[in-house]
Amino acid sequence: MTDDQFGHAMRNRWMLDPAITYLNHGTVGAPPKCVLEAQQKLRDEIERQPSHFLLREVSPKGVGKWKRGRSRLREAADVVAGFLGAKGDDLVFVDNTTSGVNAILRSFDFREGDEVLVPDTAYGGVLHAAQYAARSRSATVRIVEFPKSVRGPGDIVKAIDAAIGPKTRIAIIDHITTGTALVLPVAEIAARCRKRGVAILVDGAHAPGAIHVDIPSLGVDWYTGNLHKWAWSPRSSGVLWVDPARQASLHPAVISWGLDQGITHEFDWPGTRDPTPHLAAPAGLAFMRELGVERVQHYNHELAWNAGCELARQWESKPMGPEDMTGAMITVPLPPHFGSTADDAAALRDVLLFEHQIEVHAGALNNQVCVRISAQIYNEMSDVGRLVNALRLAS
Ligand SMILES: Cc1ncc(COP(=O)(O)O)c(C=O)c1O
After folding, report:
1. Distance, C-alpha 144 to centroid of its chain
2. Following DSSP, what letter does each residue of 277-293 receive, concatenated?
3. Does residue 230 line the site of ligand 1, with CB under 6 A?
4. 128, 222, 226, 228: residue to mutate for ligand 1 pocket, most atoms within 8 A of CB
5. CATH number listed for the domain at residues 3-33+292-394
6. What gap in Å lies between CA 92 and CA 94, rounded to an integer?
7. Is the peptide bond preceding residue 236 cis, with omega within 30 degrees of 0?
8. Is 3.40.50.1580 the CATH number for 49-286?
9. What is the rounded CA–CA span in Å between residue 323 and residue 241?
10. Taking the domains of the chain in order of start, what are their residue ranges?
11. For 319-347, what is each residue's pLDDT tens digit?
């Protein structure tokens, strides 16, 4: 498979409606057809003997009695952990990044007056989880302002370093920010946090599959992220990696049979649920490996960067950050006549979809409407050309 076979030639490997130009892979992901087929096979297998499968093949309690060795969930975790440079038993599945963040924050031993550091780029749901955890334990959330124009990773490290104070206990850092779509220098930030006694939780919602991720090398305490966005898993499939020193104190947001028996027992049976999004995760990784992981990531990065430059050229704007902080998504601010508020951005999103059949994320940042383009191997520059034309007509 060569890069010139990516683009619209790949569209038939996805279920996506061919009438829509889909430039929004990052928002809720889109699993390839072969992954959905693998998931359906698992569902068929489960439904032949549901109790047997869930209680003896998946539940850690049942597996222990029924067979030596690993449950189906642990086998899938081994594959996913391998993709992320980690050990299988340091990684558990969660429904999504939101669940992972909630588990960590609810387990954290906040003391009165502690401060949680959260950048102003944090995802809204994650910020709420931090505010909820903090307020119920007399802690506070401090929001770090990032520079409006980021010249390089050093700007981000400096901003975090300056915001850490004597009460800071934990920092929540995005691996890839949601609105500005910037890849943050997590390892450097983690080094600063460690030096100053601050625990670090990474929100990797957009990272696995989009960029190379080797979790243990980052030096963080917890890493949670999604597989259903860029690692091509079915929804809902998230992961939570935990430094071994932090494992005994971590519990899921929903407590069930595994209490105090270690993270794999606690998280592998959160009550009865559909395990197929997690069991099918290796199928997404296998498809990406078949196409070439580096090739996929390179194609998506180049397309995202070129798309950002093209949009910026049209409106004498510039992408939110430099190329070395860009992964498979890029955000470009639009000129004032596109509006300045979240409502203006939502209206633009609707016009693009309903009048031009283009699905792309738009939001408001720093009083400017911005477009965030996701680049996936089923996209090509002509999709960006369609977006540029539609934006011209919409303005
Ligand atoms: C940075 C970031 N964190 C967390 C989330 C939440 O992801 P999920 O809804 O899968 O939990 C998102 C969603 O896009 C995100 O962009």
Report:
1. 21
2. HHHTHHHHHHHHHHH-H
3. no
4. 226
5. 3.90.1150.10
6. 7
7. yes
8. no
9. 28
10. 3-33+292-394, 49-286
11. 999 999 999 999 999 999 999 999 999 99
